[in-house]
Amino acid sequence: MSRLDSPILEPRVVDTGILVAVVALLATGVASMFAATPATAWVYVLHGTTGVLFLALVVLKLWRVRHRVRVRPSGVWTSLLLAALSVAALATGFGWVFGLELDVGFWGLLNVHIAFGLLVAPVVLFHLRRRFAVASRETLTQRRTVLRSGGLLVGGAVAWRAQQSLNRLLDTAGADRRFTGSRPAEGDSGNDFPVTMWMADDPDPIDTDSWTLSVGGLTERSLSVGADELDPDSEQRALLDCTSGWYAERDWQGLSVGDLLDAVEPHEDAAWVQFRSVTGYRWTLPIDEARDALLATHVDGQRLSHGHGYPLRLVAPDRRGYQWVKWVESVEVSRSRDLSESIAIFVSGL
Ligand code: HEM
Ligand code: HEM
Ligand SMILES: Nc1nc2c(c(=O)[nH]1)N[C@H]1C(S)=C(S)[C@@H](COP(=O)(O)O)O[C@H]1N2
Ligand SMILES: [Mo]
């Protein structure tokens, strides 16, 4: 390979770098779906920094292979598809950060970004099946390689930081993102914020004459509470942050889950608490975290609207929005975690 074709880093080093970057982007991207507290902000910093690095490496790579594409070696269509998906993931990622507005059906830009990002994974595997070649240990530890990749990494971090400042300076629609990347939702109090269903959930308004909340499982006794017995005696300010990229902070009023658990007395070996919706949608919290959660009947003093989960919705302050189960009808204590819930959130309501 001539000097000209590898202006900064050797081809094998570029490809190895791309491989590491893609793995890191997928890992931090998926991890971001679970990262809701400031202590996990590094997941987003790493994703953004790696994103900038990936951009630089992909530019070097595509420049290098531009002549190959023209002679169409076998497997080139996979490579071109991969290039298209990579560019699309980069464009939607940076577009989101700079406040670009784009809606594809009921999907916003961030969901489109996640879709492109996830699609990169299988296609890169197909590309690797024919093209897998990484730099030798010798090349990777060469002074030149170490200095230049180190420089690229630092450059990536600096560029990522500068980009966030530039965003604020230009006062784009992306400027007031939280560390999760979410922007403030339209609407400023009570029920006035977006109604979001993860996939297919769309129950009819709950008939409160037949609805009851049941609390039980691995407990001394169980409890059944009718809608007219719900006494909102607990309040919490908490921020709902949807992975589709919006957030809303509100005062929520309702039942303390800790009080409910005290009433049913969980057994010694109880470790998890599952909140289940009338639709089958459900999520589980470790019992200590569940104690601090709230089952809300009201938001900012207004009775919850149907769309927001009336008569009861989970408020889980340290969790992403999709875990705030709406239309809750059961609270169940158990010893082990129910893994089917991660499938249920996709198929409930179908
Ligand atoms: C995820 C981003 C990637 C994109 C967009 C990409 C794109 C391309 C394109 C367009 C070509 C030229 C057409 C062809 O030969 O089929 C190519 C070739 C190649 N790619 Fe990739 N690729 C990526 C990742 C990787 C990775 C992770 C590796 C290996 C670790 C790799 C190794 C190669 C090799 C060995 C070739 C043959 C050409 C050469 O040796 O210079 N690629 N790639
Ligand atoms: C190869 C795949 C991917 C690439 C190249 C990529 C690239 C990017 C880039 C360049 C940004 C802008 C970051 C910044 O400059 O601050 C970004 C943001 C983001 N990405 Fe990805 N990404 C990929 C996969 C994913 C996946 C799989 C997910 C989730 C499952 C994801 C979730 C996010 C989120 C939530 C943001 C917004 C963060 C913020 O606003 O600061 N990404 N991505
Ligand atoms: N039963 C049920 N609960 C659910 C959902 C759902 O689809 N079904 N969507 C979740 C998602 S993705 C989010 S972001 C929040 C949105 O709450 P909101 O519609 O009150 O804004 O509810 C969560 N709770
Ligand atoms: Mo969400």
UniProtKB/TrEMBL annotation:
Keyword Membrane applies: yes
Transmembrane segments: 12-35, 41-63, 75-98, 104-128
UniProt keyword list: Membrane, Transmembrane, Transmembrane helix
Record-annotated Oxidoreductase molybdopterin-binding domain positions: 205-337
GO molecular function, one term: oxidoreductase activity
One Pfam match: Oxidored_molyb
PANTHER family reported for this sequence: BLL0505 PROTEIN, PROTEIN-METHIONINE-SULFOXIDE REDUCTASE
Name under which the protein is recorded: Molybdopterin-dependent oxidoreductase
Organism: Halapricum hydrolyticum
